[in-house]
């Protein structure tokens, strides 16, 4: 069975299919701080079988979870596919049964009505459980030590009534609660959303249902001490698109963006909507309050950043409009105006923002992200990376001074999303490490790099060799060793 000879399935993006356990990874340069005791979990789409349609977007593959276990200066590796319902049904059949990305109309008749989730977008530990997530389906629960799939459609003991669960839940470091939501919560392409509060011991304690202004990809959100904040951006979908065989989502430049602010202890009647002219914003760095004002920090672009979700009116993709820079959206809860004020925070072009998660929901000084530095040379065939976006630089933004600190990885490599690791025993913001996978695009190999989080330009303090190529992933998180104990 051959995978298609297309950019989504060749080169660095070729499927891997490797499940492995390696107890000791070689440290090629520098040293791993011996006090680090925990795991960096991340997930990548890695299709088990060639797609039904002959080609597909790369992030419709089956979830492959990688765990890097840090202890006593050693790093071990585990990697396993998530055994979703989809994965199990297709493995039993020996072929793909589910069709195009988020289009059940393209599925084999034998799996009509089955859960289509791939659990390929994010992984994090909460209440001793490893959650593997895709926003179109329920969570999948894995064992954080063995990566064994324990429950492919977890519903919190029957307390979760939504059909979907976000791939970007947040942990409030002050309460230990997990905050999350589901969109298309009553069915595909519906405007129904639900917000969940989940206690530190893993029980749903609050559920609020409401409708968003229009159906769209609600990929991420933010929270503050008193509010949860949802941004509605016009990557839109409909059953008409699915019936026509179009990609599930498309960018509708004729629609405004909205920001919904919901009190954490409030109901649907308390949500307040603010609006601004159209733009693009996906991932959220952080949010915080300043008196009556709510600030919401996102990488924002003028136009569509997703060429695989084309313009709904047929306009060609405009790369110069896809350049995202960190921007602060501000709304005033005491004002009569429903406008969103937008102000730039830094000039770095890029995405995948991260913070020191101990400062989630409050004012933070530092943020990290992947950067596209167009001034640096690219020595690759066609001048492109595996994704078409040359995320060739790791960047840090000082939100107080506006200063930036960057590290360029070289002309033949790119980065995957970073994560922050606090220095054990420290409470100061930014005192810790950045862990990130380097894609070595010429050799088709990977390395794991560890940086001092406040001194990126100095280069990695440890370079860790990996025995095989780690497929381009989406998101991941650090969990200290004690977090993996229920």
Structure in words:
The two termini are 41 Å apart. The protein is an all-beta fold and 486 residues long. It has a domain at 158-364. Helix content is 3%, strand content 38%. The chain has helices spanning 85-93, 239-243; strands at 20-22, 27-30, 38-45, 63-71, 74-81, 122-126, 129-133, 140-142, 149-151, 170-171, 178-183, 192-198, 204-211, 222-223, 227-232, 235-237, 249-251, 257-263, 272-276, 280-281, 286-290, 293-301, 325-332, 341-354, 366-371, 393-398, 404-408, 413-415, 419-422, 432-440, 445-452, 462-465, 476-480. The strands form seven sheets. Strands 20, 21, 22, 23, 24, 25, 26 and 27 form an eight-stranded antiparallel beta sheet that branches. Strands 2, 28, 29, 30, 31 and 32 form a six-stranded antiparallel beta sheet that branches. It has a five-stranded antiparallel beta sheet with strand order 1-5-4-3-33, with no helix packed on it. The model has no long low-confidence stretch (mean pLDDT 96). Strand 12 and strand 13 (204-211) form a beta hairpin.
